[in-house]
Amino acid sequence: MKINAALAKSLLLVASFGLALPMLAKPPVKPAPAKQEETAKAEGDAAEPTIPGVSAKRANGGYVGVTVDAGGFTVSFYDSKKKQVDCDVAQAAIRWNPSYKIGEERRMLNPSGDGKTLTSAPVRAPYNFRFRLILLNASGEAVDSFGLNLNG
User: Fold this and answer.
1) pLDDT tens-digit map of 15-59
2) From residue 83, how far is each of 50, 116, 147 by CA, in Å?
3) For residue 94, which of 137, 146, 37 has the smallest C-alpha distance?
4) Strand partners of residue 131
């Protein structure tokens, strides 16, 4: 079978363009880094405080923060400006499905000596689960309820 010279030239031309065109194309342009805004704030402005652990916004406008300290749960209460305040509930209940057994674990949290936190008995690790936190008033009625993820 003889190859026509014109066909060979056109095939060679198409193949060379296929190899050469990507080399001639402009490389992708990286976007310019965003201008960094001034990080220094006026002396009167302070950085927004952070709530340690897992936090959730309450119905009353404040916040609740849950941490695992010394092996047990600690629930702290914060106002709308994220400053720690005294707890306004009598108790809390936490329940979760641990990975080390079948079934549910539960803990009651009672006020600590300082009156700002609720604490529980020690909890077995690993601390990686979804839990339900229920805040209770003095008569045992639920005030707030949260579904949160603990990763740590």
Assistant:
1) 666 665 555 556 666 666 665 554 444 445 567 788 888 888 988
2) 9, 11, 22
3) 146
4) 96, 148
For 55-90, write each residue's pLDDT tens digit: 889 888 889 999 888 888 899 999 989 899 998 899
Could you state, in order of their start, the residue ranges of all structural domains in the chain?
A: 54-151
φ, ψ of residue 30 in degrees (nearest 5):
-75, 140
Alpha-carbon dihedral 132, 135, 138, 139, rounded to 10 degrees: -50
- Using a cut of 0.70, tell me whether the model's pTM lies above it: no
**How many CA within 13 A on the CB side of residue 27?**
2
Structure tokens at 40: 């220094």
Neighbours of 87 (CB within 10 A): 21
Tell which residue, 144, 32, 48, has the closest CA to residue 90. 144
Tokens of 37: 């805004």
CATH architecture of the domain with residue range 54-151: Sandwich (2.60)
As a whole number of angstroms, the distance between CA 97 and CA 60 comes to 29
